[in-house]
């Protein structure tokens, strides 16, 4: 059992003991064996933003006040362990424990008991799309140490065989503050030895990256004659050191799948042996640290040390690069363009289980009564995820979940941004959205439409010229795809090019034509994403894809029609391999490649929209700043009361239990306010939208 697994087991045992002691259990809120029990719907929620400046103990003091307001559900920001110092919690690093900066497990239980005593319930924000990465994330560190051999290699959405051959089997780590050569010869990159763990690592300012165990002999094996003089050539400790060195040198490489299991077991054993040896004889630890100096050039002319360090870096399962290179060469999916938030493959059953095991325990014990799902558009298959979530919650609640029509056993809402002409997917096993849609509809009613033209003239005078929102939107999307998300676009283009190359129908379509056409389609895409699944392509997805392709073709005067027809067939999962496939296995591989590309494209179109519109256009087009809210459409100045009532009626019929938000933690006007106090706590109503 790994140290992390052992620690998690101990933590869960502590949860069990605390739960028994608190006498708070499932029996307090439902009848065991009640297979028809539906989720309890919130009446009104109040969001609490937890961080080191606002803890569970701080929140305790507010509960009587919230109860007096008529709040039915406390609505908490992410409570699982985040990176040290995080003020928001969306950069979590451990799904298996409470964030220690906001409270201990006992303090969390005490907070939950107080909520129950007030007759309220708890909704928790969870983050299934991504994790914060760095030295505080054990999964990520294991990936950097072992590459594809890591047991977590498939947890993160990493392209282990990217277009650039030099990056095969490596993760691009964009943390350097200057070019690689400048950093290498600056002396800022250091080697360190953790004697208590028997491990080696690179250190660059606050960043730490573990060495590939196969490369340990390059460090440990230097100057062995000197160690023999100190320990004596016939000493048992020298023999054990040489045995450890030999074992490291014979480890399977991180690109040898057949040896992955042996590598993981053996490297842990040898590190433990090395740590124990250093504990018995301090001279060995001193010797290793002296070897590290051979890699640290004292001045820029110390080429031997720099060359030695470079060769060692080349042997790693990662590649350090200048942070500005990330947008062109990064080979892991990010949360938008944030390099230190790496996307997870939640569609993998192992990943889903490890991510949700603890939160399901909290549901089972009666601590958590609802979930808010962050950024569902980043998920590979949101519909499947929500089904799995409801099934997992139902199992812990002692009830059952068959499908959405049979009733949802657990309250789930999603942070989904909808266009004014878009509706939430019917096959999502959720109760509705977090209310961005309602917030913008309400705002439209509060603005007098008669002043639209006057505001437009004032703004045009201010910016000294006519200002077209649509033209600026197109320009912003081109900017983001050319600069910020260029690497992701290139990866998609190469993936699609490989599909074209494998078919008689499409092999003449060039990589350049594919890349340009994908860019034009993404620029014209009218919504965050579509939700096509293998065998399930709904009418709205076809409409959105056809709209984008039609607009793209009109603006692309160079590309042949065939490239757009090819892309359409892939996005709708209709592409054919050839009139007479070379074999059933080949046909299945082609079909799987087409489906995977369509799903990956959908994951990418959301970040393109968010970065282009919310994070770029909204800061360029400011005709009336109140309209520049998340999910807003600033080109539409106002809306009628009749339209507002119609949308409410539609919501009441389809998703009557959506949140009706008047402000959220994403409210732009409040983003610059203090994050840890009352400015971060928002009031939201939930209930019938009629």
Give a short summary of the structure.
This protein has 690 residues and is α/β, with parallel strands linked by helices. It has 3 domains: 3-129 and 344-436 and 645-686, Alpha-Beta Barrel (TIM Barrel); 138-338, 2-Layer Sandwich (Maltooligosyl trehalose synthase, domain 2); 471-614, no CATH class.
Set down the secondary structure blueprint:
Layout (H helix, E strand, L loop, with lengths): L2 H20 L21 E5 L7 H5 L2 H7 L3 E4 L3 E3 L9 E7 L6 H13 L3 E6 L3 E3 L5 H9 L24 E6 L3 H5 L4 E6 L4 E6 L2 E4 L6 H4 L3 H8 L4 H14 L10 H21 L1 H11 L10 H12 L3 E5 L3 H4 L4 E2 L2 E6 L5 H16 L5 E4 L8 H16 L13 E4 L17 E2 L2 H11 L5 H12 L5 H16 L1 H16 L9 H14 L14 H17 L5 H11 L12 H31 L26 H14 L4 E3 L21 E4 L4
Parallel strand pairs: 1-2, 2-5, 5-14, 7-11, 14-15, 15-16
Antiparallel strand pairs: 1-18, 3-4, 6-13, 8-9, 9-10, 12-13, 17-18
Helix pairs in contact: 1-4, 9-10, 10-11, 14-15, 16-24, 18-20, 18-23, 19-20, 19-23, 20-21, 21-22
Distance between the termini: 54 Å
Structural class, please?
Answer: alpha/beta
The whole-number mean of residue pLDDT values reads 90
Q: Helix content range of the residues, please?
A: 40-55%
Order of the strands making up the biggest sheet? 16-15-14-5-2-1-18-17
Low-confidence stretches: 23-36, 669-690
Coarse morphology? globular
CATH class of the largest domain: Alpha Beta
How does the major sheet shape up?
A: 8 strands, mixed
Q: What name goes with the CATH superfamily of the largest domain?
A: Glycosidases
What's the Cα radius of gyration?
Answer: 28 Å
- How many domains make up the 3D coordinates? 3
The beta-strand count equals: 18
CATH fold topology of the largest domain: TIM Barrel
Give me the number of helical elements. 24
**CATH architecture heading of the largest domain:** Alpha-Beta Barrel
């Amino acid at each position: 059992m790994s140290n992390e697994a052992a620690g998690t087991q101990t933590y869960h045992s502590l949860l069990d003991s605390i739960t028994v002691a608190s006498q708070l259990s499932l029996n307090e809120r439902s009848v065991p064996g009640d297979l028809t029990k539906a989720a309890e719907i919130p009446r009104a929620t109040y969001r609490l933003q937890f961080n080191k400046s606002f803890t569970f103990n701080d929140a305790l003091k507010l509960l009587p006040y919230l109860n007096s307001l008529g709040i039915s559900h406390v609505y908490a920001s992410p409570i699982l362990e985040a990176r040290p110092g995080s003020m928001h919690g969306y950069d979590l690093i451990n799904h298996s424990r409470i964030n220690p900066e906001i409270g201990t497990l006992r303090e969390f239980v005490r907070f939950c008991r107080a909520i129950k005593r007030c007759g309220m319930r708890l909704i928790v924000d969870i983050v299934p799309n991504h994790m914060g990465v760095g030295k505080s994330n054990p999964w990520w560190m294991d990936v950097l140490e072992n590459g594809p051999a890591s047991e977590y290699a498939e947890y993160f959405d990493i392209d282990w065989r990217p277009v650039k051959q030099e990056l095969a089997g490596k993760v691009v780590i964009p943390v350097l503050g200057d070019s690689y050569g400048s950093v290498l010869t600056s002396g800022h990159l250091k080697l360190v030895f953790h004697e208590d763990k028997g491990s080696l690592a690179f250190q660059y300012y606050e960043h730490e990256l573990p060495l590939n165990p196969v490369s340990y002999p390059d460090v440990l094996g230097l100057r062995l004659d000197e160690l023999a003089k100190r320990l004596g050539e016939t000493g048992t400790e020298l023999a054990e050191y040489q045995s450890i060195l030999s074992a490291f040198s014979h480890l399977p490489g991180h690109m040898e799948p057949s040896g992955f299991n042996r590598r993981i077991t053996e490297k842990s054993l040898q590190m433990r042996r090395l740590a124990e040896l250093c504990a018995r004889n301090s001279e060995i630890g001193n010797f290793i640290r002296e070897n590290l100096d051979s890699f640290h050039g004292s001045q820029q002319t110390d080429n031997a040390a720099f060359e030695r360090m470079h060769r060692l870096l080349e042997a790693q399962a990662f590649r350090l690069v200048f942070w500005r290179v990330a947008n062109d060469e990064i080979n892991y999916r990010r949360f938008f363009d944030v390099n230190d938030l790496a996307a997870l493959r939640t569609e993998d059953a192992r990943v889903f289980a490890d991510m949700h095991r603890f939160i399901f325990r909290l549901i089972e014990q009666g601590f958590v009564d609802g979930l808010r799902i962050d950024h569902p558009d980043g998920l590979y298959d949101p519909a499947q995820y929500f089904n799995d979530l409801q099934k997992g919650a139902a199992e812990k609640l002692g009830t059952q979940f068959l499908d959405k029509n049979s009733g949802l056993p657990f309250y789930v809402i999603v942070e989904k941004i909808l266009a004014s002409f878009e509706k939430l997917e019917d096959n999502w096993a959720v109760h509705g959205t977090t209310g961005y849609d309602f917030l913008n509809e309400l705002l439209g009613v509060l603005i007098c439409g008669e002043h639209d033209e006057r505001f437009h003239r004032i703004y045009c005078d201010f910016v000294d010229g006519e200002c077209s929102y649509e033209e600026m939107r197109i320009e912003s999307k081109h900017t983001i795809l050319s600069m910020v998300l260029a690497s992701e676009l290139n990866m998609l283009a190469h993936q699609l090019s490989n599909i074209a190359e494998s078919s008689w129908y499409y092999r003449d379509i060039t990589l350049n034509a594919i890349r340009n056409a994908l860019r034009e389609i993404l620029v014209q895409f009218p919504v965050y994403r579509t939700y096509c699944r293998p065998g399930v392509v709904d009418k709205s997805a076809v409409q959105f894809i056809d709209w984008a392709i039609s607009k793209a073709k009109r603006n692309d005067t160079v590309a042949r029609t065939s490239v757009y027809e090819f892309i359409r067939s892939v996005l709708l999962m209709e592409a054919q391999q050839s009139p007479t496939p070379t074999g059933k296995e080949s046909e299945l591989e082609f079909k799987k490649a087409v489906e995977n590309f369509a799903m990956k494209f959908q994951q990418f179109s959301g970040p393109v929209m968010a970065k282009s519109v919310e994070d770029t256009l909204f800061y360029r087009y400011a005709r009336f700043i109140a309209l520049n809210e998340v999910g807003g459409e600033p080109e539409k100045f106002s809306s009628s009361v009749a339209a507002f009532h119609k949308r409410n009626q539609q919501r009441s019929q389809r998703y009557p239990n959506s949140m009706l938000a008047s402000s959220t933690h994403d409210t732009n006007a409040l983003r610059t306010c203090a994050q840890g106090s009352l400015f971060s706590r928002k009031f939201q109503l939930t209930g019938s939208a009629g």
